[in-house]
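Section 3.1: Structural characterization of target chains.
Under the original work plan, the team committed to producing a structural model for every single-chain target entering the pipeline before any wet-lab resources were allocated. The record below documents one such target. The sequence was received from the expression subgroup and is listed exactly as submitted; it comprises 464 residues.
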Amino acid sequence: MKEKVQSFGRFLSSMVMPNIGAFIAWGLITALFIEKGWWPNEQLASMVGPMSTYLLPLLIAYTGGKMIADVRGGVIGSIATFGVIAATDVPMFLGAMVMGPLAGWVIKKFDKLVSGHVKAGFEMLVNNFSIGIIGGLLAILAYYGFAPVVTGLTNAMAAGVAFFVTHGLLPIASLFIEPAKVLFLNNAINHGILSPMGIDQAKELGQSVFFLMEANPGPGLGILLAYCIAGKGSAKTTAPGAVIIHFFGGIHEIYFPYILMNPVLLASAVLGGAAGIFTFNLFGAGLVSPASPGSILAILAMTPKGQYLGILAGVLVSAAVALVTAIPLIRIFGKKKSLEEAVAEKDSMKAQSKGIKETKTPEEASAAPSEKIRKIVFACDAGMGSSAMGATVLKKKLKEVGREDIVVEHASVSSIPADAQIVVTHESLKERAQHSCPTARLILITNFMAAPQYNELASELKDK
């Protein structure tokens, strides 16, 4: 079930993540040129509405369709989604996330149906007219059939959110957001749920607190600082480096293992997140666009004029609450175990429960002669944050042992290259990595900063 939820969330976020640059461009134009921006400019501000109404949904639709049926899927996904856009007066992000992949699936089925039945010389004619005809029909269907449904869902969600905002209940959303983040659903929550709602709100108010609910680095910062103070072993020694990567680099996945080794710290994350949301609401703070990655630098870049105090207050309060509550929890529940001991015990118990013998060394897990290794892929949920960092660390380790000839790449766990010989990923993503690239040797880690497997793998490849 966890794997299925992660895969579905990953599918949603995969339509948004490649287009984050467009969201940032929209956010910067909004922050700079709207009436309350840094440099109000009525002409340039006229781009804000069309970008949120047309550009962003169509980019999402194209990406969703392309995920299913390559470029043809992207084109027909955009055509079909325009039917939803034309039928409503609100940004159709939800509609794009449905119509894009749906249209891609339809054209993929059509191509499979006619494969081998098209006469030579008529391929281009069939390809072009199939997209035109089927895309047009889907756009009409979306206009009359799907748009009213999406509008109803959007209005219902807006009413529900308004209820929570009006009654000051929005902080309780942390009960869902923080645990889901630790299960590596952070990108799905931020880009699949909160960002579309935030864009709707920002179009009306010029800013939205929804952009801060998942992206706020405060809770993770507080927990990592607590490990700096009260942690033991490698958890304590690696926490300072994790603080920098998390807070300034915006890679929130870096603190997830610290919670997984001591799950009671979820309470600190929830309390810190709720305190942050309460503070943001108290100051009326919000961002003009999604902040991705969730770095304090990206957050400040998306902060509207005059809102810096509220933003910084929310981040600091959430960090302080998480820190104060995490320190005693670490001392009570994590006093006798180091990070390595906790991971080893967990892995052993997991293996015993499944009746399997756990592989402990790289030599035992090796699926191919190491002298033939030419490509290693570091995989994470989105393929942009922790995987990029892990790939950099691994490259340095391999360089130290004279194996610069090995290519080290980073990728999404759902899109691992087929030619990957070794895949390094977090243990919670094991099943998805196995499905994505079943032929590769899998190395599971729990600590992105100082995984012992990095040195073990580098030593193994050096020796052979």
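The CA atoms of residues 95 and 149 lie 9 Å apart.
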